[in-house]
Amino acid sequence: MNTSEDRPRKLLLTVDAPSLLHRNHHARAHTGIVDRSGRPAWALHGMLRQIIEAIDAFAPDAVLFGLDDRTASERRDFYPDYKAGRAEKDPALVDQLDRAGALLDALGLATLTPPGLEADDVNASAATWADEHGWSCVIITSDRDAFAHISDHTQVLRLIDGGISASPLLTPRRLHAMYGVAAENYLEYAALRGDASDNLPGVSGIGEKTAAVLLEQVGSMHAVWADIDQNDGLGVVATLDAWAAETGGRRIGPTVLRRLTAPGARERYDFNVRIMSGRDDLDLGLTPDVPGSLGLLPLEHERVGRVVSFLGVGATTDLAIRVLSTDPASAGR
Asked: Which domains does the chain have, with CATH numbers?
């Protein structure tokens, strides 16, 4: 007899739409693609093409696109310098960012623009939703923040040069091989390291390598701070020094303790955790048990053809009709 544990988990494909639009804008601007109204469409076309290829490869049961609220930001309200220093966006990119939601909605795909929040928060909530509903999740993004959501049932396809087929699909094991950090500790690692792209300095003197060793050896920052509070950090120093003796590395325990207890160090770490943490409790609006719900595949044949053809690339329209209007491979499992 088959039980629910025997059945394969359904798959939610979650797309960081702004991340893909930014990458495709810079990679494809030279094509000069415009839609039938004459407006720039190279980033929209590139994003859609990549997602169609991903759907073809992964055969998800549902697809969700996260979008940034471009009118308000809770993080910027809390930290006015959040993402400060980034170059001003090309007007052609801004135009396509503003139109992305309407294009995806017209196709019948699910989109979410959480008020005051970002696609990163949609990624976090999608990973939580998938776990709570017994689904698997693949997050497509070029942003490292999504690595904090990697688990046994959530993977991240990090887009790099070369597109979908050349991008690594990160699992807990692969993430550990890349950074030396367990998936469940990635947020702590990032908070120690900081993120220059978001204008978030790390804890002074704690770089990537030191952060990875600290977390791998002590186990978590909760354990680190507890030892500092209750034992003056002697356990942290002893653990790091034992690691140094075993590996032949230099003795770093006293230096790490000094940097973690420096004025402002813990406040900087806590601040980064607050800014970097994705909201994982958003209502995604997914109703997979209701046939025809937004985001569920397959999509209407005529609708797909009509919407995608507006971008003016016949080969992409043909591919979209074939992939988006066909039952996902998982449907027959």
From this structure: 11-175+279-332 (3.40.50.1010), 183-276 (1.10.150.20)
